[in-house]
Design goal:
about 500 residues; alpha/beta; Cobalt-precorrin-4 Transmethylase, domain 1; Methyltransferase, Cobalt-precorrin-4 Transmethylase, Domain 2; Rossmann fold; 4 domains; six-stranded mixed β-sheet; about 20% strand; binds S-adenosyl-L-homocysteine
């Protein structure tokens, strides 16, 4: 059986600017083929075991050829797979989507196209520019700015006479040429021009000027690809309609690496992005459920326990997933006291309608043990479903006075950084790397070493707490440790560091 290929428009970058149809398909397909224009966050939608194939820039800086991309799609479909080809913006706007479909047709492979929000319109919108306005224009024109290609021998005298908004895609490296051609062919040099780079993302940059000044403005702001160039009167509305504008935000311009697992990173990533940071996701751990454990048997007599201790949101999630899969009722926990390691764990418990009876004051095992010893009678029976290879400390200490049953329900395995994020890690100046556990420290450094990626020495390591710090120190790294041992703490530490730096301390 031959598979099927879906060309899915991934929109201009903001995670939420994807169609519902695209979102559903990404969760269903066997293979996702992607490049750097589509947000790598969509990869976390992939089902367990789905294959992710990168067709963007390779380490030698060469893009994969279109014929080779076509080949990948054909091969995967012929192997019986359903394939999502994620394409930036809309697949049919300069995305060579039509060619990919023709190639599939030639090979008798079924396909469907899911439109997306094109950067030419939606990206411009986030830059503060409406592509049409009744007072200014009655048409818009989207033109390739890629001028080397034989297919793009533009009729500049006609283009310069257009009264509508003109948008050039793929044109930054030819900006000088484009503005010259328009002027030479009679366009008024004072015509407004703007560029929007990485539109809709937290690191979006906008430059505004006119045909005479824009090249200089773009240089000043160090704008490069991918950018939209827009020419026309609508640009004059930018100051007024610039609702998105991340450039004034506190963490704008900072490049921050998040190393925790993809499944867990979304909250931290969006908090950082909302503050204007550019986040590079480098999930260096992956959570894998250990299915073969005795938890099932324990569910039977869970009421014999006096307390349940959850030390991470993962253990909460896996515990209750299992309970649900076994078609058990949450009321089987009635009367069992629940202890939580900290705010993240508590938040996850809240998802199941539960409020823990106790939360550790400081989010470390020592503090949680204090809490248990202060609130639970000696000899009480405690169930601790948690990670394999977790610190022995809690089991040793509580084991002295309580009847402990520890069940290892998941393990941290090495994560899977996407190829586009590897590309960003090796090409962007990183300011901060956040570590939220010891395994993120170990795995992250191994993963980037395998790729020969060397991060700038100015990049600062931010540690969530003392155990993670100890691991960083044992590897010879310097670090700043959060005062509060949770995600808010990590983010506050970065903000404080920037405040101090701005003050010149
Ligand atoms: N199919 C895409 C365009 C592909 S051509 C779409 O509909 O948007 C690639 C060009 O699109 C880039 O060179 C750049 O000009 C533009 N582009 C795509 N995403 C962009 C973004 N987020 N910000 C600015 N320009 C973008």
């Amino acid at each position: 059986m031959t598979g099927k290929v879906y060309l899915i428009g991934a929109g201009p970058g903001d995670y939420e600017l994807l169609t519902l149809k695209g979102h559903r398909l990404l969760k269903e397909v066997d293979v996702i083929v992607y490049d750097r224009l589509a947000s790598s966050k969509y990869l976390s939608l992939a089902k367990e075991g789905a294959k992710l194939i990168y067709v963007g820039k390779k380490s030698s800086n060469h893009y994969m050829k279109q014929e080779d991309i076509n080949q990948v799609l054909v091969q995967q479909a012929q192997a019986g797979k359903t394939v999502a080809r994620l394409k930036g913006g809309d697949p049919y706007v300069f995305g060579r989507g039509g060619e990919e479909c023709q190639e599939l047709l030639k090979n008798n492979i079924e396909f469907e196209v899911v439109p997306g929000i094109t950067s030419a319109i939606g990206g411009l919108c986030y830059g503060g520019i409406p592509i049409t306005h009744r007072n200014f224009n009655s048409s818009f024109h989207v033109i390739t700015g890629h001028l080397k290609d034989d297919t793009s021998k533009h009729d500049w005298s006609s283009i310069a006479k257009l009264n509508g908004t003109i948008v050039f895609l793929m044109g930054v490296s030819n900006l000088q040429k484009i503005t010259d051609k328009l002027k030479v062919n009679g366009m008024d040099p004072s015509t407004d021009v703007a560029l929007v780079q990485w539109a809709t993302r937290s690191y979006q940059k906008v430059a505004v000027g006119n045909l005479n000044t824009i090249v200089e403005e773009v240089k000043k702001k160090d704008i490069s690809s991918p950018s939209i160039i827009v020419v026309g009167k609508v640009v004059s509305l930018q100051k007024q309609l610039n609702f998105f504008n991340p450039e004034d935000k506190e963490l704008y311009g900072k490049n921050i690496v998040v190393t925790r697992s993809r499944a867990q990173s979304s909250q931290m990533v969006s908090m950082l992005e909302n503050l204007g940071a550019r986040v590079i996701e480098a999930p260096s751990i992956r959570i894998s459920e250990i299915r073969d454990n005795q938890l099932e048997a324990e569910f039977e007599n869970i009421r014999n326990y006096h307390a349940l201790i959850f030390t991470s949101s993962n253990s909460v999630k896996i515990f209750f997933d299992k309970l649900t899969r076994l078609k058990l009722d949450i009321r089987c926990l009635w009367g069992v006291k629940i202890y939580s390691m900290g705010s993240g764990t508590t938040k996850e418990l809240n998802e199941y309608g539960l409020r823990p009876d106790f939360e550790a004051e400081k989010y470390v095992s020592e503090s949680l043990c204090d809490k248990v010893e202060n609130t639970l009678d000696l000899g009480a029976k405690i169930l601790i479903p948690r990670a394999k290879k977790a610190r022995e400390y809690m089991i040793d200490r509580l084991g002295k006075n309580y009847d402990i049953n520890e069940i290892k329900i998941y393990e941290n395995i090495v994560g899977d950084i996407s190829e586009s994020d590897y590309e960003f890690l090796s090409t962007i100046d990183i300011d901060y790397i956040t570590f939220t556990s010891s395994s993120t420290v170990n795995n992250f450094h191994n993963l980037i070493k395998d790729r020969n990626i060397i991060l700038p020495i100015t990049a600062k390591n931010i540690s969530i707490g003392p155990i993670t710090s100890k691991t960083l120190a044992s590897k010879g790294y310097t670090y700043i440790q959060s005062e509060k041992y949770d995600i808010d703490g990590v983010i506050d530490t970065i903000r404080e560091d920037i405040r101090l730096k701005n003050k010149g301390v």
